[in-house]
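Researcher: I'd like a structural prediction for the single chain below. Treat it as a standalone chain; there are no partners to consider.
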Amino acid sequence: MDLSASTQKPDSYDGGVAMQIKNSLNGLIAGCAIVAGWWAYGWQGIVFSISLIVFWMLVQFNRAARAMQKAGQQPVGYIDSVVMLQARLAHGMQLAEAIALAGSLGRKFSDRDEWQWTDAAGHEIVLTFRRGRLIRWAVARNEAATESPPDADVPPHAAAEGEQAANNTLAVVR
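Model: Treating it as a single chain, here is the predicted structure.
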C-alpha cells in the first residue's frame, strides 16, 4: 500500500479564525437580542429573547445528534469511498464535521487523536486531529486493487512475487 499525506491547505476553510469570529458573532447576536427585547418589551422581551436563544441551541443540538445517529447506524470505520472523503476534507475541520462527511464513526488508529476509515477496495484514510481540529490526513491505497492485470509476457509466478512485494511496502509520509 502507498501512503500519501495531504500537505495543501484549501482556501475554502479556515477553522481557527473563522470559528473565533463565528463564536463572537453568535454571542453578540444573543446579547443584542436580549437588549432589544428589554428595550422593546421590558422583562417579557428578555424572556422571549432567552426562549429564542434556547430554541436555537436545541436546533443545533438536534442537528448534531441526527448526524451522530446516522453515523452510528453504519459499520464502524467503513466508508463508501476514501477518495471522495479525501476530496471533501479541509484543514481545521472538527471531528464531528469529518464524521458527518464520512457517514460513519471512525476506528481509533493510535494513542494520539487519529481515526481511520476503510472502503470496499481496501483503501484506508487516517485523519489526525489536534485540539479537536483536523491537522493532516494520510491515504493508503491498496495497490493490488488499482494495478492493471499482469502482461502476458511475464510468467505467472513472477507476477505473483511482484504483487506480494508491492503489497508488503508501506511508506509513511508526515
